[in-house]
Write a structure and sequence with these properties.
338 residues, alpha/beta, Nucleotidyltransferase, domain 5, 2 domains, 5-stranded mixed sheet, 11 helices, 10 strands, binds 5'-O-[(R)-(carboxyoxy)(hydroxy)phosphoryl]adenosine, binds zinc ion, EC 2.3.1.234
Length: 338
């Protein structure tokens, strides 16, 4: 019997029905971009309310596609950490309610581990053990992964996540939200060497990242120190493209350098990469170059599984196989970063 998986950690409401071979029988993702665009970032209260409106129709759609009823399910899985508190609560309460109503066991999922598991869904060969990298709107982290559920945190961002930096730069240039796709589209026609933006912590011993200095450097390069007002910004499309290309080059340089370093440190022969920023074309091709040069196997989640979705919740099967079920009084863990 398949499982129902639910994802509502940030601003995507998603559900999927997945069988024990990770085959997707039904799935639905409701994005909220249009609700947050006006604010140039995700507003937690708005996100939680939208999840509440959408969660049942989204679950219905996935279940109808799969042509299953509650009685046909093996378990209900839900991402309960990390994420926005209000958003997580909607998913967890929905999952608990269905678990009680349908008398099915509940399985809780770490959203970050699920992002990495998206790579396992992309290929037939086993991807674990490996080094795992998550580059999303909320996270930039590296893990040593002994299995899909046994991960050791190597390091992560000490301030902004890579995706958040993309979103902030897009906001400065009035490119809309989410910013990553818009920045990378414009970057394609710009000169990555036009601005010498910093590559913070690139030569550090550890595996931490910092992108707030880069964000500030971009700001100073377009409005000058101390100025906060971007509304009067008078940059040509070519100038904006140069900012985007130079910014993207700096982010990608740091990410690729640290990922390759983690591979050497762990003596691993495979890197798996998940999260929204992994959809970035320059990042993907430079990682592939590094993999070819250094001789490691690279698996990047396919674009539709990079951004938040419930299909990656198929990782719940791994927990079910270990007998790791959650009790009905389990609570959300919004701040858990690892
Ligand atoms: O994984 P995700 O959907 O949500 C989180 O869990 O955070 O990632 C969303 C992030 C956003 O910051 C978005 O701007 C970024 O991924 N993103 C990209 C691209 N597509 C999405 N960043 C750079 N280049 C892209 N092509
Ligand atoms: Zn995510």
């Amino acid at each position: 019997m398949p499982i129902l998986t639910i994802e509502s950690t940030c601003d995507e409401t998603a559900a999927a029905v997945v069988d024990s071979d990770d085959k997707v029988l039904g799935q639905c993702v409701a994005k909220q971009d249009e609700l947050h665009r006006h604010f140039r970032g995700v507003v937690p209260e708005v996100a939680a309310r939208a999840h509440l409106e959408r969660i049942l129709p989204v679950i219905d759609t996935a279940m109808n596609q799969a042509d299953v009823a509650g009685a046909d399910l093996e378990a209900i899985a839900v991402a309960d950490r990390p994420g926005l508190a209000g958003s997580l609560l909607v998913g967890l309460v929905a999952a608990k309610t269905l678990a009680v109503a349908w008398q099915k066991p509940l399985v809780t999922i770490n959203h970050l581990h699920a992002h990495l598991y998206a790579c396992q869904l992309a290929v037939d060969r086993p991807v674990y053990p490996c080094v795992g990298m998550i580059v999303s709107g909320g996270h930039t982290s590296l893990y040593q992964c002994d299995s899909s559920l046994d991960l050791t945190y190597l390091g992560g961002t000490i301030d902004d996540a890579a995706g958040e930096a993309f979103d902030k730069v897009a906001a400065m240039l009035s490119l809309g939200f989410p910013g990553g796709p818009a920045v990378s589209k414009l970057a394609a026609s710009g000169n990555p060497k036009a601005h010498a933006y910093p590559r913070s912590m690139i030569r550090d011993d550890g595996f931490d990242f910092s992108f707030s200095g880069l964000k500030t450097a971009v700001r100073y390069s377009i409005v000058g120190p101390g100025q906060q007002d971007f509304s009067q910004l008078d940059l040509s499309d070519d100038q904006k493209a140069d900012v985007c290309a130079s910014f993207e080059a700096a982010v990608v340089d740091v990410l690729v350098t640290k990922a390759a370093k983690a591979i050497r440190h762990c003596q691993a022969d495979r890197l798996i990469v998940g999260g929204g920023v992994a959809a970035n074309g320059v990042f993907r091709s430079q990682l592939q170059d590094a993999a070819d040069r250094e001789g490691f196997d690279l698996v990047i989640a396919p674009a539709d599984l990079c951004t938040d979705n419930a299909v990656m919740g198929a990782i719940a099967w791994q927990k079910i196989r270990r007998g790791e079920f959650a009790s009905l009084d389990v609570d959300i863990q919004p701040g858990l970063q690892r």
